[in-house]
Amino acid sequence: MDRGRASFMEAVPAMTLLAVLYAGGEWLARRRFPGTFYPVLLAAVFLLPAPAAALVALPGALLSPVEQRPAWLRRVWRAAELVVAVWAAGRVFRALGGRDAVEASDVPYALGPAAGAVLAFCAVLTVLDGGILVVAERVPVRRAWRGLLLRSLAPVGVHGLAGLMMAVLWRSPYGPLAALLVLLPMGVSWWAFAQYHRERGAHQATIRALVQAVDIKDEYTRGHSERVGQASMMIARELGMDDERVEVLRFAGILHDVGKLGVPTRLLRKDGPLTPEERRVIELHPEYGHEMVRGISFLGEARAAVLHHHERLDGSGYPYGLVGSQIPESARVVAVADAFDAMTSTRSYSRARPVAVALEELERCAGRQFDPVMVAALVRVVRRSGWDPVVTADGVPSRRVPSPAPVSGRAGAHR
């Protein structure tokens, strides 16, 4: 016990300096772009006894900016899970003989224990992050932990390598000042990453401007694009798609009607039935939309969804009359989301249907008009979680619609 206390007291100066560095880096990282500052934290794992290393995380976690409320509770939770993760990583690193390798500046021998520590660190964060998703966000257990560990290993591994270099230099004759030089290349890489996020933010601002232009032009469908994006995202998550693809499909739903900017406003706002010629003009909007977004490279398969979201499985859709699997998967997702929101929203020519009736209609049309897999996914997630659209057709925030109870009757064809 006395040896452990003495070891802890000897580590206090290094622990204090690392805690200040971690707090400053974490504050800067979260101010500039989404991310976290792990190199200093992992350097503490490789340099200090596990209890001292765990305390390094406290100031940075408690003082870092938090956007969502309640901020204090989120800070406390973040601090608690980091303390546990760092303590576990420190214990693993010491058990594998990593401390002796760092003291001897034997980098090759220290790589194995460092990898074990990084794995322990990521595993603890994965268990705790997934658990809070289940408890607080009510995410289904089978989805809460999916992909969390694999997504964290690569970036944390890079940070761990930088932390190991810091620890080795810290124990070298050059001392802590040389160790701080390791942060320079990390700062450059963060700057490049921040540039990437700014560019992505500019693209998203462009998307928002396009959607707002569509909403202004077609006032009866105001908010429709955002709701279709939300429903597309729900379907994609229910199907188990990775986060990057879920985001792309959200963009696809948001942008699916952007081609309406090329359609005369008088046709979009016409109250009476459309003539065959007018309908042909409106049916050009998927091609107009595809022309508008095809130069936005990060949209990926969302561009195909914009072009093909009015295709039908039986080949009766437009613009090309594609059949079955010829229709891109992204377009089949957006088609279901689009039809669902159209049925549950009040338009100039129709009143909103109850959510349960809309789901029944989608199931009735599955296999002929809609992909049964996409329909089943939307039905499951809506019946489990309810339909909580971001905005209503008149732009006023809506209240949550509870999960629908089964209905006995079948709805008529909606188109």
From TrEMBL:
Entry keyword Iron-sulfur: no
Domain HD-GYP span(s) in chain numbering: 199-394
Region (Disordered): 393-415
Domain HD: residue ranges: 221-343
Domain of life from the UniProt record: Bacteria
SMART domains: HDc (SM00471)
InterPro entries (alphabetical): Cyclic_di-GMP/3'3'-cGAMP_PDE, HD/PDEase_dom, HD_domain, HD_GYP_dom, HDIG_dom
Comp. bias intervals (Low complexity): 395-415
Cited Pfam families: HD_5 (PF13487)
Protein keywords: Hydrolase, Membrane, Transmembrane, Transmembrane helix
Residue spans crossing the bilayer: 7-25, 37-64, 76-94, 114-136, 148-170, 176-194
Record GO terms (molecular function): hydrolase activity
Family annotation (PANTHER family): CYCLIC DI-GMP PHOSPHODIESTERASE TM_0186-RELATED, LIPOPROTEIN
Official protein name in the record: Metal-dependent phosphohydrolase
Organism: Streptomyces spinoverrucosus
